[in-house]
């Protein structure tokens, strides 16, 4: 048993590392294949050809691709992600990431919590009120939630809740390090904009799963034993329905990161997402690669966590 | 099964707790965090850009870098509202008959580190710009200087190898790179100077979060008197639209730009102020004169004649600009020629005549490069629709991003593309650089010996009136060949909160230079 777990763990770690290196290589090649030039971002449209050439030379951009990748990956393995080329000329990328990761983590978790909270309530009500007005209303709302682009929803939220009814700030973000309530308040609109489409997906999955489980024989058995309706719902129905629900939450983390990228820019949140967008526009290769790698780690870690959690929720998978 | 119930309970509790926390936070109102400070702080947002790589004027290249540089430094001169160079660090300027220029420096001007400005600092600044190793994008602005003499600590004498009319304009505190640096402070840490700038300006840099915000504080020893507002916070807002919502939501007091589409609605509001005027910029269709179909002068003329520029201004800029017959923008009044030119005025019949003379006929294919999702893309789309409709051509649009378009235009890997320049302050930059056969922005590959001679003559002509006439002649000359297709010049905008005042807008999109004269409430 122990050695199987160890072997399984080692295999997982090996796959993880391989995925990371492959991912990094793919991002590197994709960025290099895209036209554009960091020198033009850093030096602006007034850059003379000789200055552009000098910039490329100074930053090793004229070296063969494999040498550039090797220089980057060997640095990254020792924790040195290089220096920004075009966003914050010369600032170490590691420190940019370190400053911004907590902000993105905060907004991401905030959005995830909001989405989970909304969907737990909405999905449960929809399932319990199946076919009734509440179900129809919530299901329609979910379709709307999925169809709305998050940046658009962001502006709509700002329009209503920051400009028409000035409850939340229309722009800017207070770091949770400076003021936690400030962060909750200034992060609410962006988190909600990211959460809405996710909540819609979660709620639909939860509703379907609850309905599926409700009519299983073991639920009828539990009822016939004499457990109360509430007890059966919490311990039998909800618990079994949570497995697809948790899985979908894990899968949606990828979309969450996508949402973060867009929404951070709209709201001016100094997170990893806006850094990556700026990096991509500016062709700041070290910044993009480090951001992509960080996102990749987050996704892989989430997948791992979901796997483990599902194993815990589902006794059959533990065997 | 029982081990799971605390988890379920926890999530319910957590959920309710989170909800309650939000409700109470909302009831308490927005804490006055750093983004919302007391009126002793001017919150001057740079909108539409969020990259500042350096605050060293000699190597700065991007507009947002200059927005800040203008508040930290001074030039020997500055530009007045009519774009004329007037004294700043220099108290007086004398141009001698032999072309020698003498600057008398203001007495007792201090740098932020407390040291006193001398003529040696001016010499240092100029020599550093001239040094190839500095890699300044603005080297050519001063490359005519052949000799710098310092008779005393308050006097600088410049000699040029040949007369160079734009020199005084280029020594102003604009997008020029000629802002004066302290030699001693710079030499103490040359590599770090761009991050820890020291100038003579009304404000000095206090802190800087990359891509996020900068903070400035008033320089008490500023030679123009300590500014009224003690602190300036400069959020860097990447999205122009977010800049508008930040201002409307009272998170900032002024923005550096505003989206064209929002202007008509914003102008109706009474709680904010919209400042605007025609800017120093030129927007055109860049054509690759070396590749089909734009290698044919008749085809180029036909396309130009098929474009209705007034419609472009209406639908693309929402009226926030003017159709321009040439490349020199209207704000350069001495050199601008307002007379419409037949070849850059919509005329469908003549367009078809030109097409008939061209070796390319209706059905000709071609690609216009453009980028993004905003007005640049719309410019390309409207141009394409107009041209295809009038000429029956099959032009199409390729949308990518600005960096790619610029890289491809520079490399000659294009047929046509939307392009433009902004913030350039002398007609020489809009003419010589773009159309002289050796002009470094001449990506069209255009060459006309007559025009070359005229543009050299114009940059050497020191009499402003005569010089203006030469530029008017030059525009009339090249327009026949239509190497690029001029489209329009757009307005520049600043949005101000209702209680903000004291900002004088100049056509080159000035910004930081006005902080010192601003007040709130």
From TrEMBL, chain B:
Pfam families, sorted: SBP_bac_5 (PF00496)
Gene Ontology molecular function: peptide transmembrane transporter activity
CDD domains for the chain: PBP2_NikA_DppA_OppA_like
Subcellular location(s) of the protein: Periplasm
Domain named Solute-binding protein family: residues: 85-440
PROSITE patterns: TAT
Keyword terms: Signal, Transport
Membership in a protein family: Belongs to the bacterial solute-binding protein 5 family.
Protein name: Solute-binding protein family 5 domain-containing protein
Organism: Teichococcus deserti
């Amino acid at each position: 048993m122990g050695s199987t777990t160890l072997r399984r763990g080692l295999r997982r770690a090996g796959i993880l590392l391989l995925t990371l290196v492959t991912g990094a290589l793919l991002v590197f090649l994709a960025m290099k294949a895209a036209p554009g030039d960091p020198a033009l971002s850093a030096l602006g449209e007034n850059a003379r050809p000789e200055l552009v050439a000098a910039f490329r030379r100074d930053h090793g951009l004229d070296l063969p691709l494999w040498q550039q990748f090797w220089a980057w990956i060997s640095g990254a393995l020792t924790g040195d992600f290089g220096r920004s080329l075009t966003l914050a000329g010369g600032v170490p990328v590691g420190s940019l990431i370190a400053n911004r990761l907590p902000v993105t983590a905060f907004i991401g978790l905030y959005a995830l919590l909001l989405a989970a909270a909304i969907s737990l309530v909405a999905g449960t009500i929809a399932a319990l009120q199946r076919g009734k007005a509440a179900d129809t209303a919530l299901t329609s709302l979910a379709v709307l939630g999925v169809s709305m682009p998050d940046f658009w929803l962001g502006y709509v939220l700002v329009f209503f809740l920051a400009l028409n009814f000035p409850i939340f700030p229309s722009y800017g973000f207070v770091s949770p390090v400076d003021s936690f309530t400030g962060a909750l308040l200034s992060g609410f609109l962006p988190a909600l904009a990211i959460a809405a489409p996710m909540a819609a997906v979660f709620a639909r999955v939860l509703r379907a799963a609850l309905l599926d489980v409700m009519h299983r024989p073991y639920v009828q058995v539990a009822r016939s034993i004499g457990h109360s309706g509430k007890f059966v719902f919490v311990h039998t129905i909800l618990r079994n329905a949570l497995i697809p629900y948790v899985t979908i939450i894990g899968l949606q983390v990828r979309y969450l990161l996508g949402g973060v990228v867009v929404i951070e820019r709209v709201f001016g949140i100094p997170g990893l997402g806006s850094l990556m967008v700026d990096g991509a526009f500016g062709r700041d290769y070290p910044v993009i690669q480090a951001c992509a790698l960080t996102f990749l780690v987050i996704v892989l870690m989430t997948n791992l966590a979901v796997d483990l959690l599902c194993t815990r929720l589902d006794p059959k998978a533990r065997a | 099964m029982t081990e799971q119930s605390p988890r379920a309970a926890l999530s319910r509790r957590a959920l309710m707790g989170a909800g309650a926390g939000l409700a109470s936070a909302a009831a308490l109102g927005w804490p006055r965090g750093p983004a919302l400070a007391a009126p002793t702080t001017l919150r001057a947002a740079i909108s539409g850009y969020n990259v500042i790589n350096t605050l060293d004027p000699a190597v700065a290249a991007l507009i947002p870098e200059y927005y800040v540089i203008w508040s930290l430094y001074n030039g020997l001169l500055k530009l007045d509202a009519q774009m004329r160079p007037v004294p700043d660090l220099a108290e007086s300027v004398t141009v001698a008959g032999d072309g020698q220029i003498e600057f008398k420096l203001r007495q007792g001007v201090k740098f932020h580190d407390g040291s006193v400005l001398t003529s040696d600092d001016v010499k240092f600044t100029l020599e550093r710009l001239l040094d190839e190793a500095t890699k300044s994008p603005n080297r050519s602005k001063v490359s005519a200087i052949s000799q710098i003499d310092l008779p005393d600590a308050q006097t600088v004498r410049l000699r040029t190898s040949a007369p160079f009319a734009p020199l005084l304009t280029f020594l102003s505190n604009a997008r020029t790179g000629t802002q004066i640096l302290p030699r001693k402070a710079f030499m103490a840490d040359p590599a770090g100077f761009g991050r820890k700038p020291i100038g003579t300006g009304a404000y000095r840099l206090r802190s800087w979060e990359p891509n996020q915000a900068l903070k400035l504080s008033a320089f008490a020893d500023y030679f123009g008197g300590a500014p009224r507002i003690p602190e300036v916070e400069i959020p860097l807002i990447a999205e122009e639209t977010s800049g508008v919502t930040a201002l409307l939501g009272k998170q900032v007091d002024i923005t550096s730009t505003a989206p064209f589409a929002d202007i008509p609605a914003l102008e109706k509001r009474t709680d904010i102020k919209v400042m605007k005027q025609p800017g120093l910029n030129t927007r055109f269709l860049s054509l690759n004169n070396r590749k089909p179909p734009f290698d044919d002068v008749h085809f180029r003329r036909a396309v130009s004649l098929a474009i209705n520029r007034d419609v472009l201004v209406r639908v693309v800029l929402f009226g926030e600009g003017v159709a321009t017959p040439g490349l020199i923008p209207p704000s350069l009044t001495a050199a601008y020629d307002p007379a419409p030119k037949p070849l850059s005025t919509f005329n469908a019949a003549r367009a078809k005549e030109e097409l008939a003379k061209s070796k390319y006929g209706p059905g000709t294919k071609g690609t216009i490069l453009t980028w993004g999702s905003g007005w640049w893309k719309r410019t390309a789309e409207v141009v394409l629709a107009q041209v295809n409709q009038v000429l029956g051509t099959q032009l199409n649009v390729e949308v990518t991003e600005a960096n790619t378009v610029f890289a491809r235009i520079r490399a000659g890997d294009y047929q046509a593309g939307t392009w433009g320049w902004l913030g350039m302050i002398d007609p020489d930059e809009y003419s010589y650089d773009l159309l002289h056969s050796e002009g470094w922005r001449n990506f069209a590959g255009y060459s006309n010996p007559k025009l070359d001679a005229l543009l050299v003559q114009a940059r050497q002509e020191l009499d402003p009136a005569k010089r203006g006439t030469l530029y008017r002649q030059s525009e009339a000359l090249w327009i026949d060949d239509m190497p690029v297709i001029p489209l329009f010049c757009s307005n520049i905008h600043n949005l101000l909160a209702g209680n903000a005042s004291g900002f004088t807008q100049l056509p080159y999109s000035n910004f930081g230079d006005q902080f010192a004269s601003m007040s709130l409430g």
